[in-house]
């Protein structure tokens, strides 16, 4: 699969018959009231959404699956350079916006539907449901799925889009309805889809942006995080442990043993701290934590330190420990464990565990 970031952001999109044609000044639609007007104007100004020939936007019309794909590929700036045929039985080369759909399939944004006979089809004119909306937005923008559960009363745990809906709620993109429902199987209207897309890609429409989403300070547009692989995380954990041991050696202190159990505890705690702040791992005592994991009593003292940023920034932070946190230069430390995870904006969070004599 090609990475969309590596593609040239310059492409004239195919306009199909079922995609509305914009008329007049960007964002000036006769049927757009105060609700979501700024979001629609923002997207229209970037040529991402368009209106109908009669000057309306079709605010309450259901957005079709085809329209949603075209809006996303426009916003992402994808260049269409010959994605393979996705093999949909109802959608072939030469059909309107075929190239956009084929590119979206190759990028993993959409997957199509499976018929009773096992055939794969796209249903371009079918209405996009709110649950499918959640799936395609999280796929398109790499919004992390692994975070707090949100209790929408009409979203069962077995629903395929459950994690995606959670992710949008955690990222401040949707809050559902006042009665704690989400309406996962309802069609999403054109104005609603525009609003959610704007909240996903621009800081100006996302009130929770400072906590969960990373935006460029100049353009105010969302920066797609670069997610580390498990192996890359392990390498960085080792690097921070090595820097601490090098600093200890320079002061004539013995190096700390890299304790795999401490590494595991640190990884679990930093992951819980960032993504599940109310999980027991965050608040429990180290002795209870250790016994739960390994079925053994922890007979020695464990203390922890926390840091953020790159390996170098985390190390600098640990060199300047506060009064309430353990120094990396304590003589009676024997073992070390380091845990790294990424927050929803891709930033690094660290826990460092020390075992004492």
TrEMBL record:
UniProt keyword terms in alphabetical order: Signal
Signal peptide: 1-25
Domain SLH: 23-86, 88-147, 148-211
InterPro entries documented for this protein: CAP_sf, Cell_Envelope_Struct_Comp, SLH_dom
Name of the protein in question: S-layer homology domain-containing protein
């Amino acid at each position: 699969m090609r990475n969309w970031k590596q593609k040239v952001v310059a492409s004239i999109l195919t306009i199909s018959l079922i995609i509305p044609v914009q008329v007049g000044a960007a964002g000036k639609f006769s049927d757009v009231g105060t609700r979501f007007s700024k979001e629609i104007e923002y997207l229209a100004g970037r040529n991402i959404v368009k209106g109908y020939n009669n000057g309306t936007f079709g605010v309450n019309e259901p957005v079709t699956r085809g329209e949603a794909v075209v809006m996303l590929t426009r916003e992402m700036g994808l260049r269409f350079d010959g994605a393979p045929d996705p093999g949909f039985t109802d959608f072939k080369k030469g059909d309107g916006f075929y190239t956009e759909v084929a590119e979206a399939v190759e990028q993993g944004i959409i997957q199509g539907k499976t018929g009773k006979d096992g055939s794969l089809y796209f249903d371009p004119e079918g209405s996009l449901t709110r649950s499918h909306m959640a799936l395609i937005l999280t796929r398109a923008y790499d919004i992390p799925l692994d975070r707090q559960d949100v209790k929408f009363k009409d979203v069962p745990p077995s629903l395929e889009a459950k994690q995606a809906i959670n992710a949008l709620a955690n990222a401040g993109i949707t809050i559902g309805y006042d009665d704690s429902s989400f309406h996962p199987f309802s069609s999403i209207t054109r104005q609603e889809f525009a609003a959610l897309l704007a909240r996903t890609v621009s800081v100006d429409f996302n009130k929770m942006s400072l906590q969960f989403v990373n935006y460029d300070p100049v353009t105010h547009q969302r920066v797609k995080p670069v997610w580390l692989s498990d192996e890359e995380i392990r390498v960085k954990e080792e690097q921070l442990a090595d820097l601490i041991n090098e600093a200890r050696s320079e002061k004539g202190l013995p190096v700390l043993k890299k304790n795999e159990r401490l590494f595991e505890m640190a990884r679990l705690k930093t992951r819980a701290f960032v993504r599940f702040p109310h999980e027991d791992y965050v608040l429990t005592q180290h002795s209870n934590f250790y016994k739960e994991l390994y079925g053994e009593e922890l007979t020695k003292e464990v203390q922890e330190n926390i840091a953020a940023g790159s390996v170098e920034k985390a190390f600098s932070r640990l060199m300047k420990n506060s009064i309430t946190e353990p120094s990396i230069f304590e003589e009676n430390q024997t073992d070390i464990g380091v845990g790294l995870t990424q927050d929803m904006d891709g930033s690094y969070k660290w826990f460092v565990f020390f075992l004492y004599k």
